[in-house]
Write a structure and sequence with these properties.
By secondary structure, the protein is of the alpha/beta class. The protein is built from nine helices and 16 strands. It has helices at about 90-95, 120-135, 155-160, 180-190, 225-245, 265-270, 300-310, 325-345, 375-380; strands at about 15, 25, 35, 50, 55-60, 60-65, 65-70, 100-105, 135-140, 195-200, 250, 280-285, 310-320, 320, 350, 365. Strands 9-8-7-15-13-12 form a six-stranded parallel β-sheet. Strands 2-3-4-5-6 form a five-stranded antiparallel β-sheet, with no helix packed on it. Helix 7 links the parallel strand 12 and strand 13.
């Protein structure tokens, strides 16, 4: 979800790994369909999380994971500038159904000490440690498209061509380029048992700003945007895979017709050898399992995922509740939506977004610790 749509504490993305798999195509008798593993990965039986044309697998068995976006897990106000309220990590991971997936912000700014200006991995290490203690999975998002809670740099076309390799030094937030941060983060946490997949950029979109505020309604989309985004995944993905050949890479698309992934471009970018799991982000169609039109709707995205032989994770599903709708009604709508999506062939669902301090008297997408949506993801988890 972009920063235009959420309050500052809700800006973000998420990432990390469960165990891994993808790139060289191998036929596995235990899984119907094509099972993919990263080039150079260990044999399938040594990899916990896999991707096939039929979906995700865990320990060789079909797996339709559920879970939450919890973008602020690495917030520690005694160390970093944070991204929302601090979270009791053990309480959070302990509240999830077994083998859940949490997508969270693993941005460089959350690994920089705001006082010393030096790297400080303590808050992020704590997230992986807590996930491992509770046998849960994570998808760490290494950077956001809109710069929220990170370095303040909106990612325009130039970033995807060259600037991701250039340091944008921001005191207390950035000490290196995204390329160097990716190398640092993946090398540090590549052996963490919780990481299900790495996500390079949340909601990538190589558009061009036309005003100082870079408002979404004034941006333009260059004609080569799909090629630019595909080249980014081919290049950055190859570098990531060289460091960690055993973990899936997921592309954090919105999926609704954004610059670089509109229409058939979604499939073209997804054909990259370094995109193992596709994404779709679902907002604004409450209770409708397959929202969108024939060109950019979820049904079309499922078809395209099937064509390229890769699973599609609905990595963000959000609905407003609180002062504008009861939590019970929202839970019913989302259960209807996810049940239909599961039947239609999606590979799992993550809800937007857990917060430790929900605002019941406001109209928000907050999912607090006692929200009935926890019962929904438990009932749908496989």
């Amino acid at each position: 979800m972009s920063s235009e749509e959420v309050r500052p504490r809700e800006r973000g993305a998420v990432r990390r790994r469960v165990a891994s798999a993808v790139a060289a195509v191998v036929t596995v008798a235990a899984v119907v369909g094509v099972f993919t593993m990263p080039a150079g990965a260990d044999s399938p039986e040594q990899v916990r999380v896999g991707a096939s044309s039929n979906g995700l697998t865990l320990d060789g068995q079909p797996w339709w994971p559920t879970g939450l976006n919890a973008y602020q897990l690495a917030t520690d106000w005694s160390v970093n500038f944070g991204c929302g309220a601090m979270v009791d990590l053990d309480a959070y991971f302990g509240s999830l159904p077994p083998n859940s997936v949490t997508r969270f912000n693993a941005f460089q700014a959350l690994a920089v000490n705001k006082f010393s200006g030096e790297m400080d991995f303590g808050p992020m290490d704590a997230v992986f440690d807590a996930a491992a203690r509770h046998n849960q999975f994570t998808i760490p998002v290494l950077s956001p498209q809109d710069s929220g809670c990170d370095d303040g740099q909106f990612k325009s076309r130039d970033w995807y061509t060259d600037d991701w390799k250039v340091a944008n030094l921001i005191p207390g937030r950035a000490t290196m380029s995204f390329q160097d941060w990716m190398h640092t983060a993946v090398d540090r946490w590549k052996n963490e048992p919780s990481v299900a997949a790495w996500e390079l950029v949340g909601e990538p979109e190589p558009s061009l700003c036309t005003d100082a505020a870079c408002n979404w309604w004034t941006r333009t989309c260059p004609s080569d945007s799909a090629q630019v985004l595909r080249q980014f995944f081919d290049t950055a993905g190859a570098e990531l895979r060289a460091i960690d050949p055993n973990t899936l890479i997921t592309a954090g698309y919105v999926g609704g017709g954004q610059c670089g992934t509109a229409g058939d471009d979604y499939q073209y970018v997804s054909e990259s050898d370094f995109v193992d799991v596709l994404q779709y982000h679902d907002y604004g169609a409450d209770g409708v399992p397959l929202p969108g039109d024939q060109w950019n709707g979820l049904a079309r995205r499922i078809e395209q995922a099937t064509t390229v032989g890769k699973p599609l994770l609905v990595a963000e599903t959000g609905e407003l509740a609180g002062s504008c709708e009861s939590l019970a009604t929202r839970a019913t709508n989302i259960e209807t939506k996810l049940t239909g999506q599961k039947s239609a062939g999606t590979a799992g669902a993550l809800l937007w977004a857990f917060v430790p301090d929900p605002r019941p008297n406001e109209c928000t997408m907050d999912i607090g610790p006692d929200d009935p949506l926890f019962d929904v993801i438990t009932s749908l988890a496989s």
